[in-house]
């Protein structure tokens, strides 16, 4: 195999064009083999095979700086920069992350997992080069999906303003994670594709770019020719390159959304080996409730920013029709549009991954909360037990979201509670309401939740006890129950158990009442400790005689961790929690 | 005066065109009179006189929905919608806020003070209208400066995608707060202005808009004609209207940056009555240090997003040359560009108002902190005693910023400390460092600060005492000193006084040592209590025998408040703090 002889881009440069084709073919084959066994970002990488080979053949990394947007399309880049073993040897599949990572290679400049940042990064890298009086190429490789993020536009403006060498490569496969929206920048890109770059009103030329279009973006020779032409330009250049998402694997080319990313699949049939959870999940019951409401009320509308499958599958989106909006990978638009919808009498529900919600603090604060508009925000993946790449962590949401005024953030602990909260959130008109969608298997009580959630900050005491009060927030309510059971079974202590339900405010009446016959208050939350829910409890009780023990994980970008191990490292085990309580009580 | 007879837009519609001109002239005169006595956003409103009269003449607010971006240009709109008294009667000048405000009028849809949100709001308002099957015009009025924000671009895309009636009015006066950057969208706008809308590669047409250009944007008749032409369109329309910033007041037309906004001025000469603080301030010593470093080191670079005067005046910017970058009102770009600069060996300092930093949580977290790049962030106006419009509050920064991993957030208490921290931040290579630039008069010790800030989280004990320990963070260190003095003078108690310096971590050694001879720990911070610094102390000490009393203000969008009153309402007075300590000690 020629591919395995490539230990650095220098090795690639020594090859003949014929051999480069061979490397590309072998790389695609290796990619399919690994992806079919291991899973990963399928479509984006299959489409980038030839482009990546051409880039490393023509440019000179790491002197020339490559910046991959999102960086989920950097697998071939990893193969060609000393990490091929992680793609051809199953024992080493997990040696590399799914994103660029400076800890792995000097060819990876940044750890990146969110979209639309590459141009801003490139603008800084290029400006530093200019300040130092150095000369080399700075390249940003960005997909058409990522171009929908406002930060990408800000980066386009700044690169054009700086005016020195920067190559922006738009990898246009006419698909985001899901199908692209139809207007705006997608109109611009489509017109350019259809006219082979000749359309009037060229968006990129309008911004001042030296624009080049390549229709055959999976043709290695054309790519090499184009890159050689623009290499070492003394001004910003934009290459609009049309590629095929999933190129070279029929099922991926045919079903581009399903094959954007996913787990192991059958290489013959293109069927995913696991069809996912076939039973009801928090996600499925959420979707069902919203679909049901939509049918009865045409003002109910679901909003999403580029990850629609989070809420609805393709069939559900079809059914929802104009009551579903995917704004592109443009979270700021989603949050503020939600505000506008609520203001004008609609009932908007915005579904977002916690990690991507981070892009909208000001939209949640200055737009939704300051204007106190009753949008509903469904926060997914806000848990230690969700995505665990350091660039995709979802457990910073409580410090981020819960200290914004006016906003109500709810932490359901089971299906019935979640649905009751969601129903209330959609129908009420008083507050922006966010719901921390539970993570993990569906817990059902079988009893409808009749709570009136308009009575804010009212906690539920599920077991009355003494000496110790356990506050189990959302996902960690079950943990509080287990700790209580252990205390009862092994130590004869009946703890008070509390389901706080509200993250954004304290039940001060309950907290005040605990002083009478409790000594210790324990808070458990599925997220970081600092700035979290427990600390508001500790502060409130700081001047009381109650001791407070807060549990959460340490403030750190934990990477590809095992959730149970991480929790244990942070003292979040039944044994440790019980022991610390006993220490205090003794 | 005709103007004072206008109690609603209906009154305007009854007038002849000649009388409309009279209203416009009177409105400009009233505006100048009020601004010269009261201050406010001068340039933006002077330029909007004719457009606002024409808008209310042709359209039918509040059925047609007007959404003003930033809304600092809405003064004439307020005059014409029942609030004229606040502009012609000095006794009522403060009846209205400087921004649109739904509490004042049904003609104001949103409370807005940050840029680039109008299009997203409009996209939601229009979509809700469509869902309800209603028919009217939705208008967003956005300046060219605001167009540089990525969120504006996201809104343009979504409006184009929705495809129904929305009028986007780009009020192009070729100036942001300061001079616009030169490339990207500004190239596009300039080419369109210079060609009277005829330039090839029309940015807005590329995005699918029905585009109209008006060069005489301060000509009332032309404006009326244009608005009548596009009213009730069944698709998105973009009106590119060229106006004169400061129109009708020569000093404002001539010096557009100085007359963007400001305090009272002399109507004859155009001189501001107060020339500002002539002595040294935290801002001036900050600028001096950075300018000095720039001279010695060409890799030191200052970055700003649309508010350059925060850091440098026009002369200083000139001197800084290519070591100063204004990215436009594009805070995301500023934060991530800072990351790219640091990665490639430059020493970037990004100066930002706390309230606008809110637009960059993910850029600070996912870009700068995850990649642990040593950018310096200067956070201005992070205090209860800074801007006090509810849309411009700067005191949410600690919960927002201090729980991001890897980042070091420093709270200097005097000039020497601030400069030592800034010097360290710029020169070190280990962490992103943010500095909470002190607010208020310069405090000087006269002694150089020799602290080694690379020893993270080391607090400074400025007075050793017993019973009570006072942690005075940043701006509130002086308050801690005053409380200590009162305790000593009146109650014979020598308190321990601590200058924490570090917001992002605790000096656990110091905290542990307090148990020995202290009973109460008091934290004082100039910001909101929830999610703040004090709560991390309360949590850490939750299981100890120490009582903790945290001081900060309540989580709320406080509006146009008196800072001393607000602090008193939140118990932040020397008397109250002393009394609560004594209660606990007795």
Structural description of this entry:
The structure is a homodimer of 586-residue chains. By secondary structure, chain A is an alpha/beta fold. In chain A, helix 4 runs parallel beside helix 11, helix 7 runs parallel beside helix 8 and helix 15 runs parallel beside helix 17. In chain A, helix 8 links the parallel strand 2 and strand 3. Chain A is 38% helix and 15% strand. Chain A contains 24 helices and 16 strands. A six-stranded parallel beta sheet of chain A has the order 7-6-8-9-11-10, sandwiched between helices. Chain A has three domains: 251 residues, Thiamin diphosphate (ThDP)-binding fold, Pyr/PP domains (Rossmann fold, 3-Layer(aba) Sandwich), CATH 3.40.50.970; 155 residues, Thiamin diphosphate (ThDP)-binding fold, Pyr/PP domains (Rossmann fold, 3-Layer(aba) Sandwich), CATH 3.40.50.970; 126 residues, Rossmann fold (3-Layer(aba) Sandwich), CATH 3.40.50.920. Chains A and B meet through helix 7, helix 8, helix 9, helix 10 and helix 15 of A and helix 7, helix 8, helix 9, helix 10 and helix 15 of B.
User: What is the molecular shape of chain A?
Assistant: globular
* Rg from Cα of chain A: 26 Å
Task: Give the distance, in angstroms, between the N- and C-terminal Cα atoms of chain A.
Answer: 68 Å
Mean pLDDT over the full residue set of chain A: 96
Q: CATH homologous superfamily of the largest domain in chain A, by name?
A: Thiamin diphosphate (ThDP)-binding fold, Pyr/PP domains
Report the helical percentage of chain A.
Answer: 25-40%
Overall number of structural domains of chain A: 3
Structural class of chain A: alpha/beta
Oligomeric assembly: homodimer
Number of helices of chain A: 24
Q: How many DSSP E strands of chain A?
A: 16
What portion of residues of chain A belong to β-strands?
Answer: 15-25%
**What CATH first level of the largest domain in chain A would be assigned?**
Alpha Beta
The biggest beta sheet of chain A is recorded as: 6 strands, parallel
Q: State the largest interface.
A: A-B, 122 and 121 residues
Specify the CATH architecture of the largest domain in chain A: 3-Layer(aba) Sandwich
Instruction: Say what the CATH topology of the largest domain in chain A is.
Output: Rossmann fold
Strand order in space, largest sheet of chain A: 7-6-8-9-11-10
Unreliable stretches of chain A: none
């Amino acid at each position: 195999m020629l591919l395995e002889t490539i230990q650095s881009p220098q090795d690639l440069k020594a090859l003949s064009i014929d051999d480069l084709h061979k490397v590309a073919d072998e790389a695609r084959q290796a990619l399919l083999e690994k992806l079919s066994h291991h899973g990963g970002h399928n479509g984006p990488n299959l489409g980038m095979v030839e482009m990546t080979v051409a880039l490393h053949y023509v440019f000179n990394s790491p002197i020339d700086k490559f910046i991959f947007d999102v960086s989920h399309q950097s697998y071939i880049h990893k193969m060609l920069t000393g990490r091929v073993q992680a793609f051809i040897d199953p024992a080493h599949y997990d040696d590399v992350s799914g994103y660029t990572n400076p800890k792995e290679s000097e060819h990876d400049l940044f750890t990146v997992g969110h979209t639309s940042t590459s141009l801003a990064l490139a603008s800084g890298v290029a400006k530093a080069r200019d300040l130092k009086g150095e000369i080399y190429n700075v390249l940003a490789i960005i997909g058409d999906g990522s171009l929908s993020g406002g930060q990408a536009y800000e980066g386009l403006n700044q690169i054009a303003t700086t005016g020195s060498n920067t190559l922006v490569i738009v990898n246009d496969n006419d698909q985001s994670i899901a199908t692209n929206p139809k207007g705006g920048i997608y109109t611009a890109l489509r017109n350019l594709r259809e006219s082979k770059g000749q359309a009037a009103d060229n968006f990129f030329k309008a911004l001042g770019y030296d624009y080049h279009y390549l229709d055959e973006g999976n043709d290695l020779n054309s790519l090499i020719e184009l890159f050689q032409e623009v290499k070492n330009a003394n001004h910003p250049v934009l290459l609009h390159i049309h590629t095929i998402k999933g190129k070279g694997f029929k099922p991926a080319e045919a079903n581009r959304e399903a094959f954007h990313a996913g787990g192991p699949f059958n290489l013959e049939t293109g069927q995913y080996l696991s069809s996912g959870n076939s039973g009801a999940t928090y996600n499925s019951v959420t979707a069902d409730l919203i679909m049901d409401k939509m049918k009865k009320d045409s003002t109910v509308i679901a909003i999403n920013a580029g990850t629609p499958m989070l809420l609805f599958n393709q069939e559900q989106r079809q059914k929802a029709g104009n009551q579903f909006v995917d704004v592109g990978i443009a979270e700021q638009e989603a949050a503020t549009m939600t505000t506008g919808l609520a203001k004008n009498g609609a009932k908007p529900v915005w579904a977002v991954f916690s990690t991507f919600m981070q892009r909208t603090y000001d939209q949640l604060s200055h737009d939704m909360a300051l204007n106190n508009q009753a949008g509903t925000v469904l926060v997914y993946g806000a848990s230690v037990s969700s995505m665990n790449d350091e660039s995709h962590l979802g457990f910073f949401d409580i410090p981020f979201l819960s200290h914004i005024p006016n906003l109500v953030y709810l932490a359901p602990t089971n299906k019935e509670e979640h649905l009751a909260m969601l129903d209330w959130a959609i129908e009420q008109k008083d507050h922006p309401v966010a719901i921390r969608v539970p993570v993990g298997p569906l817990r059902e009580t079988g009893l409808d939740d009749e709570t009136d959630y308009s009575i804010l900050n009212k906690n539920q005491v599920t077991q009355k006890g003494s000496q110790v009060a356990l506050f189990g927030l959302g996902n960690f309510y079950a943990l509080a129950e287990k700790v209580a059971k252990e205390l009862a079974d092994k130590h004869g202590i009946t703890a008070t158990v509390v389901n706080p339900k509200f993250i954004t405010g304290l039940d001060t009446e309950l907290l005040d009442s605990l002083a009478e016959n409790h000594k210790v208050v324990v808070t458990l939350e599925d997220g970081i400790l600092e700035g979290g829910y427990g600390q508001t409890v500790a502060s409130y009780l700081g001047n009381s005689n109650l001791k407070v023990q807060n549990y959460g994980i340490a403030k750190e970008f934990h990477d590809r961790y095992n959730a149970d191990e991480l929790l244990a490292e942070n003292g979040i085990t039944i044994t440790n929690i019980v022991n610390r309580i006993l220490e205090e009580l003794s």
